[in-house]
Amino acid sequence: MESISPSELAVELLNHCLRGSQWPEDVLDALVAEALDEDERLAAAATRALFSILVERLADLFEPRLCDTYAALFSRVVGQALPELKAPDLVRRYNAVRAVRPVTKAPKNVFVPSRVTLGADVAVTSIVLDAARQRFPDAQIWFVGPQKAWELFAYSPGLKHVRVDYGRRGLLAGRLHVFHELRDVFSQPGSLVLDPDSRLTQLGILPVCPEDRHHLFESRSYGGDSTASLSCLTQHWVRETLGVEDAQPWLHPKFQYDFGSQPVTTVSLGVGENPAKRLEDPFEEELLKLLAHDNALVMVDAGAPGSEEEQRVRRAIERTALSSDRIGLHEGSFASFAAMIAASSLFAGYDSAGQHVAATLGIPLICVFSGYASQRMFQRWSPDSPGPSTVIQVQDQGPVDVLNSIRQAL
Predict the structure, then answer these.
(1) What is the 3-state secondary structure (H, E, C) of the chain?
(2) Cα gap 342→336, rounded to integer Å
(3) Bridge partners of 214?
(4) Which pLDDT score, from 0 to 100, does residue 9 have?
(5) Which residues fall within 8 angstroms of residue 116, CB to CB, at 6 or more apart?
(6) Does domain 109-242 correspond to CATH entry 3.40.50.2000?
(7) 248-271: buried (b, 16+ CB within 10 Å) or exposed (e) per residue?
């Protein structure tokens, strides 16, 4: 299979999974071997194909039957990368921890691992954290994950942080290396792991603690064929698991903004490394000009320094030809931008973390939702807000049509 690219191997495996046929074990073994290769360029390409083409697609379809497929497939990946772990044991354990069952013991430490993506930590993980602190007021609650995710909750009294970094662009070996770190952290006496379908645990596959202390919210199958959002489903899960009726999404960053009486619109043009979420030019610059009406100030998040997003944002702002008192650039952490959203009168952007922050805070929002893998993915990830919100589901519309829909929403 040396002449077959990692992307082709991943597509072949995906097609078997979607058809419900048995995927060729030699094809998966070949892809994983390349992802573990000492040549980092080869390993990077294979890792990217494994996750972006195969694993993420299986998850994004939110098809319950594909959870069993994922478990069988990724358990074999883990077994090949970490030989001390055996695929059949991992599958058996996975089935045990994903079973919805009530917590009956009072833990000393409750660990909630990050989902790694910021929007998911606001829309899903924060609800689990809220339920944990309500159910176990005498326990120590720990958020486990990267620093940038922790910054969304850093000023919450009593909540503590275990920093565990996870590179979404990292090699397979590096992504799985966190297993040993998590196992050590979760070995504390009287610990309980409430897993919101974390990428740190590879969606519950890694045996990070005894199975009776691991409760997995398998968000890809929970809710079945319902049209409910992930936030709504998370609330149902904590009700069944912890008996908490009113857990809510929340965030508590250290930053704070005050724009006084000036109306401010915050904008995120981030697409989470998924170019399918974007609309073609000149949509973004026209959107900014549309939002910069009357005396409103538009503040656009720059994204990560040096990223494709930053270059695109700066280009769009420049092309508007608007003055600095009409449009500005937010440069800083996402937690800082989240605090800016909290002080704004409107949020607008693509399907991204920003929309979930706005939804959580009840800030009026307009979301342009494009590039989704399935209708159920659109339903699951649509922002669930108590405030005014407009979600524009992009199917065949062009930029002009979407801009007209935004104009009507305004």
Answers:
(1) CCCCCHHHHHHHHHHHHHHCCCCCHHHHHHHHHHHCCCCHHHHHHHHHHHHHHHHHHHHHCCCHHHHHHHHHHHHHHHHHHCCCCCHHHHHHHHHHHCCCCCCCCCCCEEEEECCCCHHHHHHHHHHHHHHHHHHCCCCEEEEEECHHHHCCCCCCCCCEEEECCCCCCCCHHHHHHHHHHHHHHCCCCCEEEEECCCCCCCCCCCCCCCHHHEEECCCCCCCCCCCCCHHHHHHHHHHHHHCCCCCCCCCCCCCCCCCCCCCEEEEECCCCCCHHHCCCCCHHHHHHHHHCCCCCEEEEECCCCCCHHHHHHHHHHHHHCCCCCCEEEECCCHHHHHHHHHCCCEEEEECCHHHHHHHHHCCCEEEEECCCCCHHHHHHHCCCCCCCEEEEECCCCCHHHHHHHHHHHC
(2) 10
(3) 193
(4) 97
(5) 145, 146, 149, 166, 168, 198, 199, 200
(6) yes
(7) ebebbbebebeeeeeebbbbbbbb
Question: Parallel, antiparallel, or unpaired for β 346-350 and 365-369?
Answer: parallel
Q: What residue ranges do the domains of the chain occupy?
A: 6-90, 109-242, 264-409
**Encoded tokens for 80:** 């090949």
Question: What is the pLDDT, as a whole number, of residue 167?
Answer: 76
Tokens encoding 169:
């662009």
CATH 3.40.50.150 fits 264-409, yes or no: no
Residue 347: phi, psi to the nearest 5? -120, 140
Type of residue at 292: A
Distance (Å, whole) CA 391 – CA 383 = 8
Asked if 165 contacts 114 with a C-beta cutoff of 8 angstroms, the reply is no
Task: Tell me the residue length of the chain.
Answer: 410
C-alpha of 258 from chain center: 28
What pLDDT score was predicted for residue 161? Answer: 98
Tell me, yes or no, if the pTM score tops 0.85. yes
Q: How far is CA 322 from the centre of its chain?
A: 33
From 24, 79, 13, 55, select the one nearest 202 (Cα to Cα): 55
- Which residues face 215 on adjacent strands? 194
Structure tokens of 364? 């009026």
Q: pLDDT tens across 288-313, in order?
A: 999 997 678 999 999 999 999 999 99
User: According to the model, what pLDDT value does residue 2 have?
Assistant: 64
Parts of the chain with a pLDDT under 70: 1-2, 168, 294
Which token pair is 114?
A: 């990050």
**Cα 88 from Cα 71, distance rounded (Å):** 10
